[in-house]
Design goal:
The structure holds 2 protein chains of 2 kinds.
Chain A (H helix, E strand, L loop, with lengths): L2 E5 L2 E5 L4 E8 L5 E7 L5 E7 L5 E3 L5 E5 L4 E6 L8 E8 L8 E3 L3 E6 L1
Parallel strand pairs in A: 2-11
Antiparallel strand pairs in A: 1-3, 3-8, 4-5, 4-9, 6-7, 7-8, 9-10, 9-11
Chain B lengths: L3 E4 L2 E4 L5 E7 L5 E8 L3 E8 L6 E2 L7 E3 L5 E6 L8 E8 L10 E2 L3 E5 L1
Parallel strand pairs in B: 2-11
Antiparallel strand pairs in B: 1-3, 3-8, 4-5, 4-9, 5-6, 7-8, 9-10, 9-11
């Protein structure tokens, strides 16, 4: 079984400040990990993903995440927040094998950026 | 470049009515999924399909039925809508689960309200 926990349903930062969104996962097999962003009234857009190889993954819009197996974490960061980053962010895990590639999502974290 | 298209985008139903959500993808993907999104709960898998003519239950299948008569289409049906089915529904597709981290592409969502 696989699960995802996002710590903090709401995160508020000032424009220009560091963004840190936390994600911990559990998976019985090596996981594939994803971050998606959802802007208001829109669908989900893939920010970045970890499959194998380099544990620091860079994504779109200046975001990056680091896979830490020992901590079962995949936290999302961005050095300097922009107003346009305000959205809801979802961490997800996907396992292979007989799970048929289904994604298991965290509860989501709403990021607010204030001037 | 349509990707994953969902129709309708918005719908209001009365309790007990039936309806079908249509998902179409033009990427020749084998795998298709229906998720529902509720506040504070992330996205939860309703049903999925690993190929034309196949369907399987996900995490929250009760009250829904699906069909995959054509590879490009995945229909989600509500036979007798209930207020608890008020949600945002997302369709998704991916090539297959074999490749590490095959990207899952999402539609833009269908907002369903049951009154």
């Amino acid at each position: 079984a696989q699960s995802v926990t996002q710590l903090g349903s709401h995160v508020s930062v000032s424009e220009g400040a560091l963004v840190l969104l936390r994600c911990n996962y559990s998976s019985s097999v090596p996981p594939y990990l994803f971050w998606y962003v959802q802007y208001p009234n829109q669908g989900l857009q893939l920010l970045l993903k970890y499959t194998t190889g380099a544990t620091l993954v860079k994504g779109i819009n200046g975001f990056e995440a680091e896979f830490k197996k020992s901590e079962t974490s995949f936290h999302l960061t961005k050095p300097s927040a922009h107003m346009s980053d305000a959205a809801e962010y979802f961490c997800a895990v996907r396992s292979g094998g007989t799970s048929y590639g289904k994604l298991t999502f965290g509860q989501g974290t709403i990021l607010t950026v204030h001037p | 470049n349509a990707g994953v298209t969902q129709t309708p985008k918005f719908r209001v139903l009365k309790t007990g009515q039936s309806m079908t959500l249509l998902c179409a993808q033009d990427m020749n993907h084998e795998y298709m999924y229906w998720y529902r999104q509720d506040p504070g709960m992330g996205l939860r898998l309703i049903h999925y399909s690993v190929g034309e003519g196949t369907t399987a239950k996900g995490e929250v299948p009760d009250g829904y039925n699906v069909s995959r008569l054509k590879k490009q289409n995945f229909l989600l049906g509500l036979e007798s809508a209930a207020p608890s089915q008020t949600s945002v529904y997302f369709c998704a597709s991916s090539q297959n689960s074999a490749g590490p981290g095959n990207t899952i592409y999402f539609g833009e969502g269908s907002w369903l309200t049951v009154v």
